[in-house]
Amino acid sequence: MSFRVLAGMPNSEAEMVLAARFEELGTAQLVATRPTTSALMDAAGEFPELDVVLVHQDLGPAPVFDAIRDLSHRHPQLAILLVSTTMDPDTFTGAMEAGARGVLSEDAGIAELESRVAKAAEWSRTLRRHLESASLDLPASGVRGRIVTVSGAKGGVGTTTCAVHLAMAAAGAGRVVCLVDLDLQTGDLPAFLNLRHRRSISDLVDAGDDISPGMLAETLYVDPRGPHVLLAPEHGERGEDVDARATRRILSALRSRYELVIVDCGSTMNEATAMAVELADTAVVAVTPDVPAMRGAQRLMAMWDRLQIRTQDSVFSLVTRHSRRNEVQPDFLRQIMGTRVLRTPVPANYRALEPGENNGDPTKVTDEALRKAFARLAGELNLLNAPDQGAGGKGTVPAVQPGGVGAAARSAATPRNGSPSTRDVSGFLNAATPESAHSSSDGHPGAPPGTSGNGYRPSSGVPGGSGGFRA
Q1: How far apart are alpha carbons 380 and 399 in whole angstroms?
Q2: Is pLDDT larger for residue 457 or for residue 145?
Q3: Which of 33, 276, 283, 310 could form a cystine bridge with 304, CB 3.0-4.6 A?
Q4: Is the omega angle on the peptide bond into residue 347 within 30 degrees of 0, that is, cis?
Q5: Strand pairing partners for 229?
């Protein structure tokens, strides 16, 4: 086992001496050296799987203790050793307070150097394993996860409600799900899920290009009902900090660690939501069957098209507040809007949603029509199957035979051991690939076969209802 070490040395002479010592070590590799504190800080994010950073006491231009403090904040899993010319108590105290793991004498021998580096590296690797498996509960999948965005044609069409219930259905089916609130000014997932958390997406903005597992662990809320949650800022004005670049970095980090990332984009477009829709594998627009909502959806998709964010033919429309008594039916809406409309509408039965929304617990929604609708929608959008290494493509979802419901949605009716697990073990993506879905003759998307889940049971046909529906 070879430990990977990065060093900050103030001059070429110190660098050569250190390099010569590492050539005699069989357990550690000096991957790079840097002559300044700023260059060392940048290099810490460039080299993967670093174990130890050596920082010379004379490294500049920034004060060395400030550099150590910044390094430990940005990369908490790295073990930092101060290479000191003066082994006095003040140096030890300053190094420990800054976040170093120890102090190493500049003239330390080969044996001491090997021993100190090995102990520090073991600490670093133990912490990394702890963060990435035990406390994090975030699997490093190695497979590109899917991003699904849910946007609203206008306010009150049920965007957040749909995002929450789709995330719950996918988590109940065994998927590792992250639910992201990108409605940065007015997002209110804490009310929908009855949660309190002091962290939000704005805490990841200053993370730079390296969003570590530790940062995600501190920022995400692990909902015991299944999905992990990344909240919008508590104060709406902080939403301005989340620009397009930050959104790309954050969603890319989440995509690498989750099978499925469901993003609630709200009903307004900004830099963050535009980037999310551009990155998404599947983009959904929630629309109610009325003229104002249809006009809003058309304006939104036309703007995406003009700005080259996403073409209209790669967007799915999701009809909410559906009733057979409505003047506008999904088939007519499909003709008017010229877009693909998901075959399963959400029934207009707000009273049935009240127990879940008033108590902040989506599992309290017991209405069969709503549960079946969300299960079928999750199947249509392929949210119930594990990601495929070769799958992908914007706006593509597998289809089923006409009028049918996928096995994944059918099996979602029965809880596994009572509730979905929030914990994942390594190798979850090495499980057998679910049975391939069948294509429907009418070309509309449907539910693919998949794994069992919890709490959502489908049926053929979605009954209508009465009442309102809101986000």
Answers
A1: 7
A2: 145
A3: 310
A4: no
A5: 179, 221
148, 316 Cβ separation under 8 angstroms: no
| pLDDT the model gives residue 262 | 94
pLDDT of residue 448: 34
- H or E stretch including 96? helix 89-98
Q: Which residue has the tokens 């009240």?
A: 354
Q: Mean pLDDT in the chain?
A: 75
What's the CA gap between 254 and 213, in Å, rounded?
A: 10
Q: Which of 24-33, 316-325, 419-428 has the lowest mean pLDDT?
A: 419-428
Q: CA-to-CA distance for 328 and 291, rounded, in angstroms?
A: 9
- Backbone phi and psi for residue 221, each to the nearest 5 degrees, phi listed first: -105, 125
Q: Which of the listed ranges 15-24, 214-223, 270-279, 319-328 does the model predict with the highest average pLDDT?
A: 270-279
pLDDT in tens, 332-380: 777 777 778 888 888 877 776 777 676 777 877 777 888 888 899 999 9
Give the C-alpha distances (Å, rounded to integers) separating 190 from 7, 163, 176, 357. Answer: 44, 13, 20, 11
The predicted structure's pLDDT at residue 229: 92
pLDDT: is 322 or 148 the higher one?
148
- Contact predicate 399/445, CB 8 Å: yes
DSSP string for 216-240:
HHHH-EE-TTS-EEEPPPSSGGGGG
**What residues does 230 pair with on adjacent strands?**
180
Burial of 455 (0-12, 13-18, 19+ CB in 10 A): buried
b vs e for 52-85, b when ≥16 Cβ sit within 10 Å of the residue's Cβ? bbbbbbebeeeebbebbbbbbebbbbbbbbbbbe
Angle at CA 468, nearest 5°, toward 463 and 471? 110
Contact predicate 186/234, CB 8 Å: no
Q: What is the pTM of this model?
A: 0.56
Residue with tokens 């109940």: 172
pLDDT digits (tens, 9 = 90+) for 98-109: 888 888 888 888
Whether residue 413 is predicted with pLDDT greater than 50 in this model: the reply is: no
Q: What is the dihedral of CA 344, 349, 350, 356, to 10 degrees?
A: -70
- First-last CA distance in the chain: 53
Strands lying side by side in the sheet with 3-8 = 28-34, 3-8, 52-56, 79-84, 102-105
CA distance 92 to 454: 54
Phi and psi for 214 in degrees, rounded to 5? -65, -40
**pLDDT of amino acid 431:** 30
Residue 40, by phi and psi: left (phi above 0), alpha (psi -120 to 50) or beta? alpha
Q: Assess contact for 99 and 71: CB atoms under 8 A.
A: yes
